[in-house]
Amino acid sequence: MRQKQMLAADFGASSGRVMMGNYDGSRIEIQQMHRFLNEPVYLSGTLYWDFLRLFHELKIGIGKASWQGKPESIGVDTWGVDFGLLDKDGFLMENPVNYRDKRTEGMLKEAEKYLSFDRFYEITGNQFMEINTAFQLLSLKKMRPEMLERAHRLLLLPDLFNYYLSGTAVSEYTIASTTQLMDAAAKKWSQEVLDCLQIPSRLFASIVEPGTCLGKMKADVCTELGTNPLEIVAVAGHDTQCALAAVPAESEDFIFVSCGTWSLFGTELDAPVINELSTRYNVTNEGAFGGKISFLKNIIGLWLVQESRRQWIREGAEYDFGTLEKMASLEPGRKSFIDPDHPDFAAPGNVPQRIRDFCKKSGQAVPDTPAQIVRCINESLALKYRMALEEICACTGKKYKAIHMVGGGTQSGLLCQLVANVCRLPVYAGPVEATVYGNLGIQLLAAGEVSNLSQLRGLIRASEEIQVYEPKTDESWEEIYQEFKEKIVK
Predict the structure, then answer these.
(1) Which one is catalytic: 82, 159, 183, 239?
(2) What is the domain-level CATH number for residue 283?
(3) What's the distance, CA 360 to chain centroid?
(4) Which domain does 132 fall in, by range?
(5) Is residue 357 annotated as part of the catalytic site, yes or no?
(6) What is the Cα–Cα distance from 111 to 122, expressed in whole angstroms?
(7) pLDDT tens digits, residue range 209-219?
């Protein structure tokens, strides 16, 4: 079989990259073409994403790849919920606002005036978080209604990149499912939710399945970059769903953790689970590739380590992530814990101080050094994963034999072993680049080179070595976990 080259543009909440994938019929090899920071910008009290810079970096990556190879297609994935607004002439009205911006504060409470939470969840099946698109739009309706009046089209971020690459404005299914505006069962925008929140339905483009080809790259972009017109493929626009497509599981029932800035902890199902238990536990049903549902919990993840590291750099201590992990591994731990999802940790800033304050208020030992802070974060994440595991098992009625961890967090042997110990299940770690593999794999499926999701996962197993962490029996974690549920997570 001939070699096939593709590009995956993966935008994370702290960095982005353009990766080349080389497929030879039995394996995918990946190569980094371009990597860049994704740093939000404060302007007049609002936190924005610098979309113009990000699109510029995307073009640099495409240009580099076209000089070094012959890519045939490209897919773009990003984080969820954030969007750009276009006017009637297709111009971006302003830079997209960052989900961590304070504009959504109080919007959950505001939304309940329009639609009961029980009905809201019954329709959308989404975990309630103030960052969700629905509450961002509600804040616009309340504070900047002129923006919605002028806007002609709302495009979530991967769709926005695709639009400026191809000229085609659509909403890809997996990213649309993060908005809390989509009917989970019908897989279409919910007119009832839009009407109740008084959000104009004209803003929303038609929803397409992941793997849809949107056409060739626009002529002006090709001319600017001196490249051949790539096929623009709407892969799973939500990076979590690209990562899920690449989970190298062999059985149908498995637990996965996509571990990066956020931790997405869940399982893959054939249909949404929307019942009393899933409502109580606030579990989300997101669209996944191949007609599947990703039933998961959104947990703040390595953002806590990333933001702590930024604070230590501001203070003059230049630690890399490997050094921080080694330091934390030498700490005895089990002294202090936080709820990673506590509102105190949501915004950028001095996370180490907030962790110290949280531990002091909750009557625990106060972690002081960077090693103690990172150990506290890792142990707290493992305990929060255990909670999510129990909730998902209760909702699905299933028992799971292993946890598949994918993403950047799998580079931390400390975290992987802690998860195995606390959850009492073996952890299969890898691939680190699951999102990229999933992005490229969906392009192969769109091109007919791979026939189904099972074959794609077999291809990932052939392309990457997976490390196994067996649980180490330690009954003290059981007592710690019970105290964590009762005293730390409230």
Answers:
(1) 239
(2) 3.30.420.40
(3) 31
(4) 4-234
(5) no
(6) 15
(7) 999 999 999 99
